[in-house]
């Protein structure tokens, strides 16, 4: 009876597994038809197709041939795809040129894309099936462990995303997992058949992607440990065991090498830098390209920062933000269960059982640990997909450990099945997040990142924006009658193959070297990809900073941002803070605004400036320096926020329609003779006094405090000599106890009618005597320090004005 019940349970489990596998294939099939070709897919497709068609591996480029060839097999059934040998670039072995020549004018690009993706979908299904099989074989509660691992695999958005793309990632992930599964089976029961199968699968992994080389040292370590057994004759036995281990390794690697050689058609050739011909020498080309790529790095973005050589913490952050939280929770739970198991077995003195279990877990996790550790040293930080090979191992580990825990916790009243309830809740959460994200698995980010809508703030490139959204963009534009756009996106094939009419913007091919009028774009509809928005592969990281300050009209799959620019912003001038240098060079101003502008330079730590007639224009304001811009930029719109490569804000370019100083300007002052007058007050110099703002000036002050006075002056004539604006805190004996002279707008920037605001910082001495002190102002020439007299009704009225008084207590 037990056997019958067990058989029925096993049959039910297999049916459930079959349904899950079918759902995975169905989901990838639907999504593969909805997405456009990603950036890397055309190159992989044509590289594999050209080899199948001609037997010539000259277009191997950066990745080995196996997975690419598997993806390209259905293309042999397309009679109109053409012969790559007839394409432009074949003679020069130029994969990029051949790919564009064959695909740009192909009348049915979706036919090529979907046909090449179908084999990868089957690889994804095989991967999920293998995950189920290993987890089921691992644990005595095999079917339960297998279903848990399978559900994690088929719902994982990263697996789903890359199980529908004609790239090399899924092939390597499958064959690496299969290699270690075969090796695990060999460690349980050694036979030449299992050894040979491990070698074959290792060869297929190596022929899929060069990063599979990381599996080699792990396999060596596992085999050596497998033969490490104590013997009576320790030296003799150790040498014998070591010899057997070496023999096994040589056999495995030899079989793998033959498989790699077979993938390249048993070619024997000579590379330019090598003196002798070698078997499968074309396989060394991807290896050389890999090293070259690591040396050069890649333009990347992480947490608001840009870098060419990456960050050691890139992949830990990517793993934390793009792995579903239920998976992370279960992974932590599985790790805790291992620790608890080890403690209990040690307490029971079951050391042999402890060693066996720890050894099994170490064999399973050795590759993902080594692989993840190697990723910390990568300089090519362009996508979570590089972590894809570790995921199946984690699913098997979670499935085996979660299934192995006690099913319930008993209370005095009745047993409560907490574990199944919690597990069910996690999988419901998992399934809901996968459903909500349909049909955009590539753009998935978990709740720690705020979901897919906020992913672009943390990671871009193939994590989010890989050229997969052009078909959806076309549908969006057609629904709104938009015929023409300006487009910046990661692309290899021209988006014209999807019917898009566009002007290319950097970094697109045929785009201008720099985005024209990038600080004041022409009217139109702009589509900026997440990668371009964050400065990846653009002429500089702030190429599209104008759009970073805008709210997009729409988001296409959270990867393409649509903006409407209604008009060119009016403006005749640009005033730049210059501590320590101008934010924008002359050529940046001309190209960035698309025209010549009047240029004004000021030290905004002590001065501000407004143009005559309040004409519109721009200010550049260095972050964290100068006066509070919110008060002095009334009616301003932050057009561009420029940041440094390390993510720190650098300066803003702010547009102002009608620049004007804030209210509360005091215009009533006194002359030295005590006569009250109202601004404007003229001088014999080039400036007229317009009033002042007693910022933070109390009626009473204490020694050691600082008083800030802001005076306003109108330019009435251009000065041939440099001048300064004085501000003194004067005692009854007319001696100045504090001086705040200065002028932060050089005379070279003046035009008649300009308004200059000068900040005067008056520091009351700590030993100042109690009493009433006067705040005075005026202007004087810097070369001879002579003051310009004050004029009241055309008559001299002293050399300074009394603004206010302060009582020091």
Notes on the protein architecture:
This protein folds into four domains: 2-405, no CATH class; 452-565, no CATH class; 573-656, no CATH class; 668-808, Sandwich (Immunoglobulin-like), CATH 2.60.40.770. The chain starts with a helix and ends with a strand. The chain contains 22 helices and 30 strands. By secondary structure, the protein is of the alpha+beta class. Residues 1-6 and 406-416 have low confidence and may be disordered. Strands 8-7-9-11-10 form a five-stranded mixed beta sheet. Strands 13-12-15-17-16 form a five-stranded mixed beta sheet. The radius of gyration is 36 Å and the shape is elongated. Helix 1 runs parallel beside helix 6 (142-155).
In short:
With 809 residues, this protein is α+β, with helices and mostly antiparallel strands. The chain is 40% helix and 18% strand. Helix 5 (109-138) packs parallel to helix 16 (391-404) and helix 15 packs antiparallel against helix 16 (391-404).
Considering the chains and any ligands shown, give keywords for the structure:
809 residues, alpha+beta, 4 domains, five-stranded mixed sheet, 22 helices, 18% strand, disordered N terminus
How big is the Rg?
A: 36 Å
Largest sheet: 5 strands, mixed
The proportion of residues forming helix, as a percent range, comes to 25-40%
Record field, number of beta strands: 30
Low-confidence stretches: 1-6, 406-416
Q: What structural class should be given to the helix and strand makeup?
A: alpha+beta
Treating each run of at least 4 consecutive H or I residues as one helix, how many helices?
22
Number of domains: 4
State mean pLDDT (0 to 100 scale).
Answer: 89
Walk across the major sheet and give the strand order.
8-7-9-11-10
Cα shape: elongated
β-strand percent reads 15-25%
Distance between the termini: 100 Å
